[in-house]
Each structure stands twice: as structure tokens, then as C-alpha cells.
Amino acid sequence: MTSPGATGSPRLDSIDALRGVALLGILLMNITGFGLADAYEVPTSATPGPELWAWAAEMLLVEGTMRGLFTLLFGASVVLYVQGLERAGSGAQAAGLYYRRTVWLLLFGLCNAYVLVWSGDILVWYGVAGLFLYAFRNLAPRRLLVCAIPLLCLQTLVGIAVYSAEQDSVARGERAYLLQAQGVALDEAQGADLEAQRERLEAVAARPSERLAKSEAMRAGYASAFRENAAEAWYYQTVFLPKFALCECLGMMLLGMALLRSGALTGEWSVRRYLLMLGSGWSIGLLVNFLEVRHQILSGFSDDAVMSAWLVTYDLGRIPLTLGHLACILLLLKATPGAQAWAALESVGRMALTNYLAHSIIALFLFTGAGLALYGRLQRHELYYVVLAIWLLQLAWSPWWLKRFRYGPMEWLWRSLTRRERQPWRIVSAGSQ
């Protein structure tokens, strides 16, 4: 599954195709963040119908898996990048080039998060996690797994601890409320518990008005959208990242390195081995996700049900399902090598940075006041028509571009900034020389 790259070094077509699938798939989740207020986790309406079914299908089948696949491939790309440098005779400069490349990715992420008004950016996360990855580049698959699995388990343990602490706080607040209702004088700690409970209830009551206010701010103009988005982006980068995302990113990246070194990502495993991964991944992942979705719907999307799904069981379903999807795609690649559909996905994957940032640019124009101001005006299921249009656009323009240029625009800029010199860009045919 290799082909010559733009510089003569081999490219792994399977990696490019997988990255293309992940890039397009991640838009299924991001589109709700682009176009609706606080609708990523739950539908804006729990009434049975297109809105609820779209949410349920997303949460059951793909939530977290495309980002998981993307993160696995980022880890694999670190190994491939360093190997490429060594093969080209630049091994002595590998560390410097790698860290410049990683810092530039982090800066691109900051631009995406603030200038392009996308608080859900993951490039900053990847840039931060990438600073730790270089030390693991030469480890054997088994040692990489020994590092990856504890990190992924630690992330789940953190979620369980946060959920337990919140449940304990709610229980103390309810006890304080009952004591006050019975005329019992509250001590200082009980008073604080009661105040925290009141704040929680006020926050729940204020959600509809907050969604409306956010929608109006996002539609008012670029400056208003920038201000509304900036606080959320800052939270994700300074609070959420170290608490909930860093271990996940590092664990999945190391797992991606292990899968590459074992031959899984390059189609070298046997069909039986891929089928085993697919069967076990889908069985566990779909079961956990089904129970999460069912519990949330039956509870009327109570805070407890939503929190337990995102903090306690999230990775227990998402990671196996990600591996199941990975095995399914690789089996399809083995069964249909050279198919035109894969060629288009490979092109999308080769331009993943350009296409990822293009999602934000398109969303900025469609949803904020800098363009058509459609934020909050489309329902969840209607946003998927936008997703389909963007998919068709990127599947068409990526192959067109790469027939004329060696790299996507942002890939070319990234490479030029990393190497501190302008890289060749256009493909020059033999007849024009």
C-alpha cells in the first residue's frame, strides 16, 4: 500500500485513505458545534423525530471515533515523518525539524480557534501532545502499548473521579436543602452546599436563554462571534485540555504508533486478525454506546445521565468502536485496492490540514455574522446536508489540486515554515521542462 510521494519518498496510501475518512467523518460531530448552541452533547429537542434520531445515530455510531482515528494517525505520522527524515539523510536535524513542525501546528491551531472562530479546534491539543511524542518514536509496539494503555485508563479514572465528586456535591446540596426546609440551622459548610445547589438549578433554568443569547451573538457580526467564541476556546485550551484531553491524545497517539509498527495501519495483518479487531471493537463499542444513548433518552437527558455518558463510560465505548471502524476500513482497502473512491479519499487525507481548516473557514462564512449568519437557524439533521455538500466539495477539489501541486496550500506553508525555506510547489510535467 505504498506509492511515490511528491519528493520521491514512499507514501502509505492506506494512511492517506484512513486520514481522509477521519477528516470527513470528524465534520459529522463538529458541524453541530459550528452551527448550534450547546447541541454537541444532546439534541436541542428530545421529542422523537429527525432531531432525536440524528443525535442517537451520531452518538451510537461515530461520536469520538473519527477524532480517535485522526489521533491514532497523528501518532503514526510522527514515526513516518522521522523515518522520512532519516531516509533523506536529515536524521541529524530530525529533532529540530520535528519540534519546529509541532510548534507551527500549535500556532495554526490557535489561529483556527480564535481567528477562524472555532473553539472546538484540536490542533492545539495535538501540538501540545506532540511535544511529548518524539521520545517514543523508536519504541517497539509492545512497549508503546505499555505506555498507551495506562494513559487511556487514567483518562477514564479522571472522568470517574470528576463524576463522583459532582454527585457527592449534588447529594450534599440536596441534604442541605431538606434541612433548611425542616427549619434546621445550617452550618457554614452546609450553607456553601446549599448555595452550590442553587447555582446548579439556576444554571439549568438559564440554559434556554443562554442558547438564544449565544446564537444572537454569533450572528451579530465577526467581532461579536469572536468574543463569544474566545472564552470557550480559552476554557478548552487551559482547563479542558490538561484535565480531560491530554492523556487521551497521548494515549491514542502512542496506540497509533504501535499499530503502525505492528503493520496494522499498512494492511500487513491477516484478514482474520482484522476481523477479530472489527468484531470485538464493534461488539463492545456499540453495546456501551447503545446503553449510554438509551439511558440518556429514558432519563429525559438528565444532567446525571449526560455526565455519566461523557465522563464514566465514554472511552469504554469510543476506543473499541474506533478500532472496529479502523479494521473495517482496512478490510475494505484490502478487498478493493485501487478503487477510484479510495484515490479521492487519499487526496483528502494528503491535504488533511488544509481541509480541516477549510471546515472552519466555510463554517465562519455560513454560520457567523461574518457571512450568512445561519447559526442556530438549522436543526441538527439539517446541518448534515451541509456536511454532505462539504464532503462532495473536498472529494472533488482535493484530487484536482494534487494533480497540479505537490502539497495542499497549508501543507506547503507548514513544510516551508518548518524548513525555513520556500518549498517547491507546482508539479512540473516532463514536457514543460
Task: Explain this structure.
This protein has 433 residues and is mainly α. It has one domain. It starts with a strand and ends in a 14-residue tail after the last helix.
Number of strands: 2
**N-to-C CA distance:** 30 Å
Q: Number of DSSP helices?
A: 15
Query: What does the overall shape look like?
Result: globular
Mean pLDDT: 92
Note the beta-strand portion: under 5%
Task: Give the arrangement of secondary structure elements.
Layout: E1 2-4, E2 10-12, H1 13-35, H2 50-61, H3 65-87, H4 94-115, H5 123-133, H6 141-181, H7 188-220, H8 222-261, H9 271-298, H10 303-311, H11 314-335, H12 340-350, H13 352-367, H14 380-402, H15 409-419
Antiparallel strand pairs: 1-2
Descriptors for this entry?
disordered N terminus; mainly alpha; 15 helices; two-stranded antiparallel ribbon; 433 residues
Can I get a quick summary?
This protein has 433 residues and is mainly alpha-helical. It contains 15 helices and two strands.
